[in-house]
Amino acid sequence: MILDGQFNDCNNNGMPDACDVRPRLLAVSQSGDIDILYLVDTSDASATPIGPLHPGVAGCSDLVWRKSGSLYGLVGLEGSDWLWLAEVDPESGFVHPICPFSQPPEEVELCGIAFHDDGTLYGVDIYGAVYVVDPHSCAMTPIQGLYAGSCAISDGLAIQPQTNWLYHAWHYIYGDGEHFYCQSGLWRVDLATGQSNPCSEPDPCPVGPLAFHPSGVLVGYGGGWGEPADYFEQLYRIDACEWELIGNGQVPMRAVSFWSPDCNGNGVPDECEVAAGTSPDCNGNGIPDECDVAAGTSPDCNGNGVPDECELACNDCNDNGVPDECDIASGFSTDCNGDEIPDECELLWNDCNHNGVPDDCDIANGTSEDINPPNGCPDECDWDDCNNNGLIDLCDLDCGALGGQCDVPGCGESADLNHNCVPDECEPCLCDLDCDGNCDGYDIQPFVLALTNPQQYCTQYPDCDHRRADINCDGVADGFDIQPFVECLVGK
Description:
alpha+beta; 4-stranded antiparallel β-sheet
């Protein structure tokens, strides 16, 4: 079929693309001290090992698929007392820890997590309280009035697609020392209204991990009453609280989730879209950018469809991980002169009185005067002597009128290439474009790069600011900065 062109096979793996993107069921089983990721056949429950969860994983109590294409796990890590939220590579088992559930209230012990279609991550603790979980920091916010049923670490949680119904499969084992008994149930709670709808007691006991297929079909693991290791070998299809046995996979599963490598649902494997460039992947995580943004995996503060982390080069002057225009739009940073640069980034060369406000704004808002003489700089700075040569800075820069206060020996000998009324020798080297602390021939190539390709400059010199190339401080790094750069370089 592939050879005669009836089906596409964009990644040349011998399987039609339509089969590649079909949601597959993944599950985790513990063997000794090792957690192993499996691919499960939903027709008979047979399980094929993919590989161990690694490195340093000490238990996985839940798997959950976010529709961005990412698979997440609730895992323990060697050497840590906390449960962690981690991203799991569904094809290798490699685990990338994101954050620990260590923030207050520390007494909260999650037994499971589940993603809603809108990207919101929910968690349920052992007492049945429901939380909204920040997938970046693991901070948890309780939802008042929601109860999902008391929960154990081996219980199952899943949210029904295109609804607000959170499903919780639970079981309780008790006994008198000689005889042991098992009770189990399936609990539903509406995350929007708090309405609960418990199902009748399931046939299998105990019951455990749950997962919803994107079509809305619910599957879960349970077991016959026997040895604990055999509890969750049997895979069931669950319909209207009725548990229909699919098969016995002979492997006890602790966590289960569906996953598909087609985050935008267009029928083309994500890897092919990224490789062909039809879907950009600027952060190189193997997931199209539109999925990262849609799922909230990557923020997009300016709404341009590009993950913020890909726009920081030459656009994050305060190094806070947020594009400059978003800092200004959100009010995090001020922009008093409207030049689209956060004010805190202009202070190095534009704050002669060190009050945390750009000089031109001090003059414009009346905080400082500029009358003695009018030179575009606050008057209080004209009377400084930053180089301690006995002349006020005003006279260092200009001898003024013949016979005036600055018409004295040594006047006018200091340069002010950035026109901020501070002698250049009192400021950081303007022509130090490689940020090595020197202004020399090694700065020529980075200066040219900053003029011709600012993005590449920021990539090659991440600790420097490309605005250093604006030697004449007219707000633009361009050809008019070449002569001032040369003058700065040769010490004029």
